[in-house]
Amino acid sequence: DQQVKQNSPSLSVQEGRISILNCDYTNSMFDYFLWYKKYPAEGPTFLISISSIKDKNEDGRFTVFLNKSAKHLSLHIVPSQPGDSAVYFCAASAPGDYKLSFGAGTTVTVRA
Amino acid sequence: DAGVIQSPRHEVTEMGQEVTLRCKPISGHNSLFWYRQTMMRGLELLIYFNNNVPIDDSGMPEDRFSAKMPNASFSTLKIQPSEPRDSAVYFCASSLGYGMGGYTFGSGTRLTVV
Questions:
Q1: What is the dihedral of CA B69, B70, B74, B79, to 10 degrees?
Q2: Residues 6+ apart with CB under 8 A from A51
Q3: Which chain B residue is nearest to residue A92, measuring alpha carbons?
Q4: Is the C-alpha dihedral spanning B83, B89, B95, B99 positive or negative?
Q5: A22 exposed, middle or buried (CB, 10 Å; 0-12, 13-18, 19+)?
Q6: A40, A71, B29, B75: which is deepest, by most CB within 10 A?
Q7: Which residues, listed in sequence order, are joined to residue A69 by a DSSP beta bridge?
Q8: CB–CB of B54/B81 below 8 Å?
Q9: Which residues on chain A are in Cβ contact (under 8 Å) with B42?
Q10: pLDDT tens for residues B6-48?
């Protein structure tokens, strides 16, 4: 049973525009959320995270928003660049739990 | 630091054969995870170790799968006997622990069972 869901398998966006990736979770115990980025033939790499005590975290072009009441988070990439073309995974963990539960991923393609 | 090192990068084997995947975590990391990536299910956690002790193996699909961590610098994931449905990319990851910025993943082993 997937506790973290990314319902959009793919997203295509023009260079310079905003990319918005969505993620929903079902486990109300989750209190730490992360986004990973994965290029072909490489392992996922950590991108940005947010704790449940916050509703927004920003790092350069990347911003993650958390809506706890809706059990929803999103990743905004502004502006999108060709190098952002990758698979993005949403992940979450519960307090004191070392393991992360991942979504199925969203493939982002940035068009020049 | 060379990061998390996995070997082999690619493995092609015949159904019924034994397959062993290897992982060297980042020195000092006390947690190690084995994940499997498939198109249908994304990244699935198979098993994780904390301080070399298996903590949760509920994701291991069948008794054909086993994992060991004999010391802090080495882990193996074994499939015996392998089946075509085991074909996937297997990732190893390590971390310092909860909330420490997440995991560091290896580059993965692409397993093909024919």
A1: -50
A2: A31, A32, A33, B99
A3: B102
A4: negative
A5: middle
A6: B75
A7: none
A8: no
A9: 2, 6, 89, 102-105
A10: 999 999 999 999 999 999 999 999 899 999 998 878 899 999 9
